[in-house]
Automatic annotation (TrEMBL):
<keyword id="KW-0547">Nucleotide-binding</keyword>
<feature type="binding site">
    <location>
        <position position="49"/>
    </location>
    <ligand>
        <name>L-glutamate</name>
    </ligand>
</feature>
<keyword id="KW-0648">Protein biosynthesis</keyword>
<feature type="binding site">
    <location>
        <position position="107"/>
    </location>
    <ligand>
        <name>Zn(2+)</name>
    </ligand>
</feature>
<dbReference type="InterPro" id="IPR014729">
    <property type="entry name" value="Rossmann-like_a/b/a_fold"/>
</dbReference>
<keyword id="KW-0479">Metal-binding</keyword>
<feature type="binding site">
    <location>
        <position position="105"/>
    </location>
    <ligand>
        <name>Zn(2+)</name>
    </ligand>
</feature>
<feature type="binding site">
    <location>
        <begin position="13"/>
        <end position="17"/>
    </location>
    <ligand>
        <name>L-glutamate</name>
    </ligand>
</feature>
<feature type="binding site">
    <location>
        <position position="195"/>
    </location>
    <ligand>
        <name>L-glutamate</name>
    </ligand>
</feature>
<keyword id="KW-0436">Ligase</keyword>
<feature type="binding site">
    <location>
        <position position="254"/>
    </location>
    <ligand>
        <name>ATP</name>
    </ligand>
</feature>
<comment type="similarity">
    <text>Belongs to the class-I aminoacyl-tRNA synthetase family. GluQ subfamily.</text>
</comment>
<feature type="binding site">
    <location>
        <position position="213"/>
    </location>
    <ligand>
        <name>L-glutamate</name>
    </ligand>
</feature>
<dbReference type="InterPro" id="IPR000924">
    <property type="entry name" value="Glu/Gln-tRNA-synth"/>
</dbReference>
<keyword id="KW-0067">ATP-binding</keyword>
<keyword id="KW-0030">Aminoacyl-tRNA synthetase</keyword>
<dbReference type="GO" id="GO:0004818">
    <property type="term" value="F:glutamate-tRNA ligase activity"/>
</dbReference>
C-alpha cells in the first residue's frame, strides 16, 4: 500500500527526548525546524518524546521548554507528550498484527547474533543486529519478548524491500530495508514502545507536513516510511540538517557528555542562536541586537534557501558519514 504525501498547510515540529538538557547540536535542529515553519508561515509544534520513561529524569522536559523559550522558540500549541499516547500506539500495533505484518519475537540478543553468524552474516552495522526473521513462522511455544515488523516486500514474498525517498538537503536517498535493518522492533521486551512506531503515529496524529531533524536520524526514515505505507498514513517531507561535531570529531550528544546550553542571559541566548544559525549555513552577517530581532533576520535568511537547504553547508565541523544513531534504546532485549 503506497503512502501519500502530506498536503495542505505547513505543520512542523521539534521533538526532543527529555533525557537531559538541550546542547548546541540540539539547538541546531530546533532552530532549523522553527525557521522552516516560520519561513513558510506555518505552525510549529513541540512534542516531548518521553516514551522511554526510565531514561527521562524528573523536570528535564520543563528545563528543555525553558531553554527553548529563552531562545525565543515558542510553539503554537501546548507541547504533546508521548507518555500520554499509549492507546494510539496500541491501536496501530493491533492493526499491523491483524494485517500479518507484526509478529511476536522470542529471541534474545545472543540468539540473534548466533543466527546471523550461522547464516554467514556479520555483527556490524554500528553494533546493531540486523534481525534475520527467526520468529516469522512462530516462537515455537516460547512467549514473545517483543513485537517486530516484517521488512520484506510482501507477507508471502521474502524478497528485499527497497525504500526510496527525497531529502530536501541530502537529495535522493535509498535503503534496502531488509538487508540493512531487518525486521525491526515495534514494542520492546520491557513493554515500552519503540521510537519508530511512536513517531509515525505522532506525526500523523499531529498533521505534521515537514520533518526537520538532524542527519543522524536519516537512517530511520525508511522504517518510518514503511510504517506509513502499511498504516495508510501520509508521508511528510524530510529535511535532515548538518551535524555539529565535538572537539574529537564525535557527534555532540547527551550520551557523550555534550555540555548543556548556557542561556543565563539574553546575550547567552543570542550567542547560541548565532552559532546554531552558522551551523545551518545561514549568512554570518545576520542582523539583530536581540533574540527577537535576530530570529526575524534568520527567517529571511532561511527563505533564501527556497525550500531546499544547501547540501554543502558546513560552517562548523560536520559529519557526512557518521554511524547512524538510534533514538533511545530500541532494542527488544
Amino acid at each position: 500500500m503506497p503512502s501519500t504525501t502530506v498536503s495542505g498547510g505547513y505543520v512542523g515540529r521539534f521533538a526532543p527526548s527529555p533525557t537531559g538538557p538541550l546542547h548546541a547540536g540540539s539547538l541546531v535542529a530546533a532552530l532549523a525546524s522553527w525557521l522552516d515553519a516560520r519561513a513558510q508561515r506555518g505552525r510549529w509544534l513541540l512534542r516531548i518524546e518521553d516514551v522511554d520513561g526510565p531514561r527521562c529524569p524528573p523536570g528535564a522536559d520543563r528545563f528543555i521548554l525553558d531553554q527553548l523559550a529563552r531562545c525565543g522558540l515558542h510553539p503554537d500549541e501546548p507541547p504533546a507528550r508521548q507518555s500520554q499516547r499509549g492507546a494510539l500506539y496500541q491501536a496501530a500495533l493491533m492493526r499491523l498484527q491483524a494485517q500479518g505484518w507484526a509478529y511476536g519475537c522470542a529471541c534474545s540478543r545472543k540468539e540473534i547474533a548466533a543466527a546471523l553468524l550461522a547464516r554467514g552474516g556479520t555483527l556490524e552495522r554500528h553494533g546493531e543486529l540486523v534481525y534475520p526473521g527467526s520468529c516469522r513462522a512462530g516462537t515455537q511455544g516460547r512467549p514473545p519478548r517483543a513485537w517486530r515488523l516484517r521488512s520484506t516486500a510482501g507477507l508471502q514474498n521474502e524478497a528485499s524491500l527497497q525504500i526510496d525517498w527525497q531529502d530536501r538537503r541530502l537529495g535522493a536517498q535509498t535503503q534496502d530495508l531488509t538487508l540493512a535493518v531487518g525486521d525491526f522492533v515495534l514494542r520492546r521486551a520491557d513493554g515500552l514502545w519503540a521510537y519508530q512506531l511512536a513517531v509515525v503515529v505522532d506525526d500523523a496524529e499531529q498533521g505534521i507536513s515537514d520533518v526537520v531533524r538532524g542527519e543522524d536520524l536519516a537512517d530511520n526514515t525508511p522504517r518510518q516510511i514503511r510504517l506509513q505505507q502499511l498504516l495508510g498514513l501520509p508521508t511528510p517531507r524530510y529535511l535532515h540538517t548538518p551535524l555539529v561535531l565535538g572537539a574529537h570529531g564525535e557527534k555532540l550528544s547527551k550520551q557523550n557528555g555534550a555540555a548543556a546550553l548556557a542561556l543565563d542571559t539574553p546575550a547567552d541566548a543570542l550567542r547560541a542562536l548565532r552559532e546554531a544559525a552558522a551551523a545551518l549555513g545561514l549568512p554570518a552577517e545576520l542582523a539583530g541586537a536581540s533574540v527577537s530581532e535576530f530570529l526575524a533576520s534568520a527567517v529571511q535568511g532561511w527563505r533564501a534557501f527556497d525550500g531546499m537547504m544547501p547540501a554543502s553547508s558546513s560552517p562548523s565541523p560536520l559529519a557526512p558519514a557518521l554511524p547512524l544513531a538510534q533514538p533511545g534504546d530500541e532494542s527488544a532485549f
